[in-house]
Design a protein that fits this description.
By secondary structure, this protein is an alpha+beta fold. It folds into three domains: 67 residues, Immunoglobulin-like, CATH 2.60.40; 75 residues, no CATH class; 177 residues, Rossmann fold (3-Layer(aba) Sandwich), CATH 3.40.50. Helix content is 22%, strand content 34%. It contains six helices and 21 strands. Strands 14-13-12-15-16-17 form a six-stranded mixed beta sheet, with helices on both faces. Strands 2, 3, 5, 6 and 7 form a five-stranded antiparallel beta sheet that branches. The chain has a four-stranded antiparallel beta sheet with strand order 11-18-8-20.
């Protein structure tokens, strides 16, 4: 109880009647991460490099199918924040030239950040040192049924390219959002879970976005990003007024939580204005693909953007509660800047 754990950890178990156990399952945050026939006193389990909080439990089954659950053991998270103070704001920023090439080696002198039109002090600029946490949010409504194999291949390829200190989870949405695998899942779990995804139902896009934001919000401060792929408009909120309300809610929550949203739209049925607006307001980008076959290349383009971000640590000029507009400018001819356009200060901050 209360231990710090990471990497490969040997778990030890005890049972009064081990000979009566026909199957055992290990639960991590209520997800089955290991199952086997019979009893074992020890098990080697991979927890990843991050020191996170885990709720661990054991469930055993007897020959009659009856289950018996142990108590829950909770480990402790080691929280490492990047300039997590009452003042500094993280502003991930992508800078490209007119030929769509990344502009490298920019210094603080090249950037100007304004809060409500007033220049702010930039305390620090980092490249790739702040961990990247991506929630990959995929539309699995029934309209994609014919192309599911290509979609799964593109998703697996995207996840496989994320390594080092960066992490990714996968959330799918049709009638409602569902977490397929969590941050730090092993490659074998990732492959199995992606293969199990089946297209069905409607398009709960806004609910999916809010679900992914909730998962990202629980993580330590980092470069938090949602990569959304959809081939249609939200079909849960059908009234125009409801769609506008949900769009505003998603953008506000993303800005409040320092989450950038990259949106990828497929085909002609998408609401491209809404997808582009979400991306531009939160510091992401909107990309359009003609067919699912182009998705792998588009995912790679998004990853290139994320890997080439500058992370500006900005000292706001005002701590007044409420929403504040952000403007990021770069003193380079032809520079095009992608950065979030606002943040909110709560009254308790």
């Amino acid at each position: 109880m209360g231990s710090y754990i990471s990497g490969e950890v040997t778990l030890e178990f005890s049972c009064n009647y081990p000979d009566k156990v026909v199957r055992m399952e290990v639960l991590r945050n209520e997800e089955v991460v290991h199952t086997q026939d019979g009893w074992s006193d020890q098990l080697l389990l991979e927890f990843g490099p991050d020191i996170r909080s885990w709720n661990l439990a054991l469930v055993v089954y007897d020959a009659k199918g009856e289950s018996y659950r142990s108590g829950t053991i909770t480990t402790r998270a080691l929280r490492v924040d990047y300039e997590e103070t009452a003042r500094l704001i993280l502003v991930p920023t992508v800078v490209k030239d007119r030929q769509n090439r990344y502009i490298q080696d920019l210094k603080p002198k090249h950037f100007t950040v304004k809060q409500d039109g007033v220049p702010c002090e930039i305390r620090l600029i980092e490249r790739q040192k702040v961990p990247l946490m991506i929630s990959l949010l995929i539309d699995t409504s029934s309209s994609l049924k014919q192309e599911q194999d290509i979609l799964k291949e593109a998703v697996f390829d995207f996840v496989s390219q994320i390594g080092g200190q960066d992490r990714c989870n996968l959330v799918v949405f049709s009638n409602e959002p569902e977490t397929v695998f969590d941050f730090g899942a092993s490659s074998s779990v990732i492959e199995d879970r992606i293969e199990d995804v089946q297209p069905k139902g409607a398009t709960a896009m806004f609910d999916g976005l809010l679900h992914s934001m909730g998962l990202l919000k629980e993580l330590p401060r980092s470069r938090k990003t949602i990569v959304l792929f959809t081939d249609g408009r939200d079909s849960i909120y059908e009234e125009v007024a409801d769609k506008r309300r949900m769009l505003r809610k998603v953008i506000r929550q993303a800005q409040d939580s320092e989450i950038a949203i990259f949106t990828i739209g497929l085909g002609e049925r998408i609401h491209d204005d809404a997808l582009e607006f979400m991306a531009s307001e939160t510091g992401g980008r909107f990309l359009w693909v003609k067919t699912v076959g182009n998705l792998k290349r588009t995912f790679a383009e998004v990853l290139d953007d994320l890997k080439n971000q500058y992370v500006l640590h900005v000292d706001p000029v005002s701590q007044d509660p409420g929403f504040h507009r952000l403007e990021v400018e770069v003193k380079k001819w032809g520079a095009r800047v992608h950065a979030r356009r606002g943040f909110r200060i709560e009254s308790s901050r």
